[in-house]
Amino acid sequence: MAGAGGGGNDVQWCFSQVKGAIDDDVAEADIISTVEFNHSGELLATGDKGGRVVIFQQELESKNQPQCRGEYNVYSTFQSHEPEFDYLKSLEIEEKINKIRWLPQKNAAQFLLSTNDKTIKLWKISERDKRPEGYNLKEEDGRYRDPTTVTTLRVPVFQPMDLMVEASPRRVFSNAHTYHINSISVNSDCETYLSADDLRINLWNLEITDRSFNIVDIKPANMEELTEVITAAEFHPNQCNTFVYSSSKGTIRLCDMRASALCDQHSKLFEEPEDPSNRSFFSEIISSISDVKFSHSGRYMMTRDYLSVKIWDLNMESRPVETYQVHEYLRSKLCSLYENDCIFDKFECCWNGNDSVVMTGSYNNFFRMFDRGYRQDVTLEASRESSKPRSVLKPRKVCTGGKRKKDEISVDSLDFNKKILHTAWHPQDNIIAVATTNNLYIFQDKL
Amino acid sequence: MINTMECAVDAQSLISISLRKIHNSRTQRGGIKLHKNLLVSYVLRNARQVYMNEKYAEIYRMQQYEEVMTVCNEIQELNPLDLAEDCEEQSGDCCGNDGVSEPASLCCALLPVSHLTAVQSAHIQAPSACSAPLSLQSDEVCKETEPSFYRSCCAEAYPVSNCDFSPVNNNLHCNKTTVLDLDTHVVTTVENGYLHQDCCASFQQCCQGAQSPAKKRKVDFEYYISDIEEVPDFTPCKRAKFEDCSYANSEHLDTSNISNLISIFGSGFSGLVSRQADFEQAMNGQFCSKQALASLGAWTRAIVAF
């Protein structure tokens, strides 16, 4: 059978696990809004619209089945953000988690940043598997003993206990953003991070919460002259002075913080001229970039707009080096997609560990992988129907016109309520996490 | 040029859908989303552009037809015989694109006049004072108009017999016909196919009327939306109503609600419009020329001097 793409022409993807409710009735709070592996891939975090963060941990490979990778099981669940009310502006602030970013691990504890529209929080996730026992002045349940009853002394000792994972907020970074935060990115120096909203980007020190530096401000003097907003921002993986931000106009600006304190002037501007023959009512919407991600190497970056994924070489600003059409068949449906608001969906994209394959989501619970080396692409589906353990995923095909072949699905049959906006790829292995509306699917390559 | 072929929904529907989205964003949880509303405003702008283009084309066609009908009828009453023979040969060309086959008579002298040959005339020197203050404004609006129409609709006073600034037809024989409109006191010289209005008292109003929406648009998105509402009520500046160039009269239109919708997210997005400024200026210029052309219908009691 022809290769399914994704990391070589002989990779086959298998279902591994699915997390979340089976109900068709989706509670709004359960809608997954972000997915992120940590730097080792051992931990997988998800955020949802209800402000909760759920962290899964990969089990160690079992000795019985050395060929099988460990499963991901719930490690910790906590409420990261609560709904708030801005009394001054009479605005409700949603608790939805927009982004989660892990910090590189420095000690036994894990740290992650989670953000909603206005506030970023640094969470410490730590394990406790022992507890002290044998206090002289306290009973085991914590009540204080009457000192007069103490007749002997003993040294308290640590006794093993059931593993307890604690999440505690270590820092709260608030009141720095007037507009809605869309991105956070940890710097490679592990000391600073940036947060971006529609018009501004701020630089924070992870230790300092009462102060942040504004490094990009595109707010015009007269708001009536507003023509574009910031849609995503990310630090370079290796160069701590470099970051990029994308705009609603389809441009990406690379900035160097050494050049000046304010990076309003970009160092590089990446922009592809629009094809005039494709001009429509919705040209501006579909050219708006919804995600930008550096490759692990730092040489390339990838952008996602509504219909395509583009790979840019940082050394060439004039046009992308590769363009992949995700669902070009939607171009003739833009009117309907505008009416039902689907055209505003913000799809994310991700690289695999060695930057050879990129992945992004689509509708009907389809997701796409593009193998850059072999020039192959594949469409797969995340569905309960094909969720037998270790069953191989069958490539899917959308019929764009003419006679529909067997096993193809026609464009008009696509379910636009089932969308995959968030995907993540394990940093080392071929393990992917794909979020449908309220379920998290984990797929692995067949060993 | 926006390709509207693929869109099943027409521009007007898109406009109402977009306004509805903006309205709904007021009640969405989490506050108004700047990014989404910005994108919606782009669609609004594009739809409006297409809608206006279609409207202008339609209005222009209607104007041409009506002018031909009106003027030809009236001139025929005045001078049914004198001009018929002069204009017969142009009848096919100048009586509009709709294949209206009215007797040419004087309509040829009045309409898009690239084909006009006509007659020597004594040129009536127009007082320059009235044109001077207008020229700058009009210039701005009309500078991108079609040359064959309206080369210097905003002409400052120029030497009587100077045909030099007629840029295209330099080698042609300089032919002039001058007409004084007793209603509007507009003196118009038709010269080598170029139409000039020397004394533009009412012309100023026309130009201002056409121009002010453009200026308004640059200032405030609210007016931008009000224009959309205006268009269905637009009445071409017909002869009797020349002074009431209704393009500028938007007060009677119920735009307050829609203006409120736009103002809720506190920005005008007229920056979007300013990017189209050139285009809209051109359109306004053209429209201005159409306005002036519409004024030709005001020649109820025009005097034609040969």
TrEMBL record, chain A:
Gene3D superfamilies: YVTN repeat-like/Quinoprotein amine dehydrogenase. InterPro entries: PP2A_PR55, PP2A_PR55_CS, WD40/YVTN_repeat-like_dom_sf, WD40_repeat_dom_sf, WD40_rpt. Transmembrane segments: none annotated. GO terms for molecular function: protein phosphatase regulator activity. One of its GO terms (cellular component) is protein phosphatase type 2A complex. PP2A consists of a common heterodimeric core enzyme, composed of a 36 kDa catalytic subunit (subunit C) and a 65 kDa constant regulatory subunit (PR65 or subunit A), that associates with a variety of regulatory subunits. This is Serine/threonine-protein phosphatase 2A 55 kDa regulatory subunit B. It comes from Coregonus suidteri.
TrEMBL record, chain B:
It comes from the Eukaryota. InterPro entries: IER (IPR008653). Belongs to the IER family. This is Immediate early response gene 5-like protein. It comes from Coregonus suidteri.
